[in-house]
Amino acid sequence: MRRLLEEVLPFIFYLVNRRKLLAAADDSELIKDGGPLSSYRNLDEDAISTRIREEHDRAKLIDEKTVKFTLTLTIALTLISSTSTFISKAVAHGVFQSWSTALSGASAVYMLIAGLISLGALTTLPTYGYGTFFIIKSRTDKDVRVHALAAQERVNAVRQIRNESAFQCLRNGLILLLVSFSVTLVGSFSDLGHASEQKEAKISLQQDHSKIPQNNTIPQKPKTKN
Fold this sequence. Notes:
The protein has 226 residues and is an all-alpha fold. It is 76% helix and 0% strand. The longest helix is centred in the C-terminal third of the chain and has 69 residues, at 142-210.
């Protein structure tokens, strides 16, 4: 059930997990003895420095991917969804028009949420293992570097779930858009069938009228002589 809700409402789980991960990044207990990442302290200095650089590079790649691809696709699909809404109002009628409009609207909402999530890549998330203060402290305390690595991994996890959440919203919006198009097509064929039936009924009625005698003159009585 939780997995289903996460697929349907990914943005809610993204906000919840984002808060948890950012809080964990500032938790110094992560690398302490008995902590979940205490094994990081067994890495040597070179390995820690390499991993920190890799995480910094990874952060840039994730942000670029989110902005360039997700945001562009979101704008395109939102325009398509808006167009679908106008088409459904012009083509489908009755219950089909109501369903098609509702689905197109929900699709547009999903895509707009995906765009807002993607814009989060333009905001500044905390960067660990960087700066003058870090260099000074890390010379005398290895745990500073270890914590920087663990914290940067948590921040990058935020970027990763943000990317995934944006894609899930796009997927849901696209599915709803396809369903909306399908409902519009069904409504269009239904309208055509109804119009065809009305036309046939009208032709049949005209044919029935044509069979009725057209001589409607009232016969006159013969005149009688007085």
